[in-house]
Design a protein that fits this description.
Blueprint (H helix, E strand, L loop, with lengths): L5 E7 L5 H4 L6 H8 L4 E6 L3 E7 L4 H16 L3 H5 L3 E4 L1 H11 L11 H16 L4 H20 L9 H13 L7 E4 L3 H12 L6 E4 L2 H10 L3 E4 L3 H7 L2 E4 L10 H9 L6 E5 L16 E5 L10 H6 L2 H23 L1 H26 L4 H31 L4 H9 L4
Helix pairs in contact: 2-3, 5-7, 5-14, 6-7, 7-14, 8-9, 11-12, 14-16, 15-16
Length: 417
């Protein structure tokens, strides 16, 4: 089957460092406000990637130029700098890439389960924005289905190896037994809650949670046996902490060099370990240069994955088999989609004939009551639907099987050329 008109343009943890990725952080609404590219559009944005999916009749090179200019305009990152980090997937390569992303095969942590929810969120946001059509809707549904199958039919996500668990493994490696440390989690969103859950599973008690919205901090802390504090007490809690995990969605760093320096002045003999999971970063890079402070960001997690990854790698062939099956189904769906214009034209022509014949019949019948008119309308509609049912099914089946010649023949047969 020929390539579908799908292009994926993006950056991820392999092609761009965190300082570039954080500058590219944006939403679909922001991109659409800056001037949407032609065609269907969806944006997948996580701490480790930003990918724009476009379904457009334009060739991939034209889409790349258009999207690069759009991202540059929306984020302020120069097009030349941006192009040095962007990757391009087109056609079936783009479709397969999204399925690999949704199943966790392209994640920083192999099999990371959170990515499926993020792909689903990207689909829902694009749906709400009205930027999707049949092409990307079909693709994202296939990707979500593949992700669910990978989680249910394989052990790719069975062993704990999420970004949050890897962050805690790194923290324990450098700070020692976390059950003997004061741990502060900044942020009560998805990543913050996952971190709290991982701490709870490790038996770490007395964890503190700071969040801009205090109610969310209270809810997260209550769920995992922690204590909640408002953001305006961050400096106070920072001075008491041994380990800090930062994972907010704040656009600017919350932990500045000055704030951390002030905290360290109150505890000169005690080291402080900071792990920044946020993109854009929650912690200024200069903080890592302060005496007694060790700072790690999401890029530092690459070398800190535990033995769970080895077990997950054994599941990769099973996941790839699921992806291959879903691609076959996707190919059939796109072939079937290719016949929709013919079916629409066929039904439009049939409806035109029905209405003309109804008008002629009603003129010949003269005055009739509303009930009789309703029966005649239903009869004519039923005849059209039943006559077109078998040809419609036949055309869809032939298209799904890749027999496009019958589609062209049908156009000639029904006078739709």
């Amino acid at each position: 089957m020929k390539n579908p008109p799908i292009t994926c343009l993006g950056v991820n943890h392999r092609t761009a460092p965190v300082e570039v990725r954080e500058r590219l952080a944006c939403t679909l609404d922001q991109l659409l406000s800056a001037g949407a590219p032609s065609g269907e559009v969806a944006l997948l944005s996580t701490c480790n990637r930003l990918e724009l999916y476009v379904c457009s009749p334009s060739n991939p090179a034209a889409v790349q130029a258009e999207v690069t200019a759009l991202l540059s305009g929306a984020t302020g990152v120069g097009a030349e700098e941006l192009s040095g980090h962007l990757y391009l997937h087109a056609g079936w390569d783009a479709a397969t890439h999204l399925l690999r992303v949704a199943t966790g095969l392209d994640s920083l942590v192999l099999g990371e389960p959170q990515i499926l929810g993020q792909v689903t969120d990207a689909f829902m946001q694009a749906t709400d924005a009205g930027s999707l059509g049949h092409c990307l809707t079909t693709l994202f549904r296939a990707a979500i289905r593949a992700g669910k199958r990978a989680r249910n039919e394989t052990a790719i996500s069975a062993n704990p190896a999420s970004v949050s668990s890897v962050a805690l493994a790194l923290a324990q490696q450098h700070a020692g037994d976390l059950t003997r440390r004061r741990v502060l989690v900044i942020g009560a969103g998805e990543m913050g809650r996952l971190t709290l859950k991982a701490l709870h599973h490790r038996g770490v008690t007395g964890v503190e949670v700071v969040n801009r919205t205090f109610a969310r901090a209270e809810s997260a802390a209550a769920a995992f046996g922690g204590c909640a504090f408002p953001l305006d007490r961050l400096d106070e809690r920072l001075a008491l902490a041994d380990v800090v995990i930062a994972a907010t969605g704040a656009p600017q760093p919350l932990l500045t060099e000055q704030l951390v320096a002030q905290a360290m002045a109150q505890r000169p003999q005690r080291p402080l370990l900071l792990v920044d999971l946020a993109v854009p970063r929650d912690i200024e890079p200069a903080v890592g240069d302060l005496p007694g402070v060790r700072l790690f960001d999401v890029d530092d997690l690459r070398g800190s994955l535990d033995e769970a990854l080895a077990a997950r790698e054994g599941e990769v062939p099973l996941v790839e088999a699921i992806i291959a099956e879903e691609v076959v189904g996707l190919q059939s769906a796109y072939r079937e989609m290719s016949v929709r214009p013919l079916i629409v034209d066929l039904r439009r022509k049939a409806e035109g004939i029905r209405q003309r014949e109804m008008e002629r019949t009603l003129r010949n019948l003269g005055a009739i009551d509303d009930a009789t008119l309703g029966h005649i309308q239903k009869l004519s509609q039923a005849l059209v639907n039943q006559l077109l049912h078998d040809p419609t099914v036949y055309l869809k089946e032939k298209a799904a099987a890749g027999e496009a010649g019958d589609v062209e023949m049908a156009r000639e047969m029904f006078g739709l050329t």
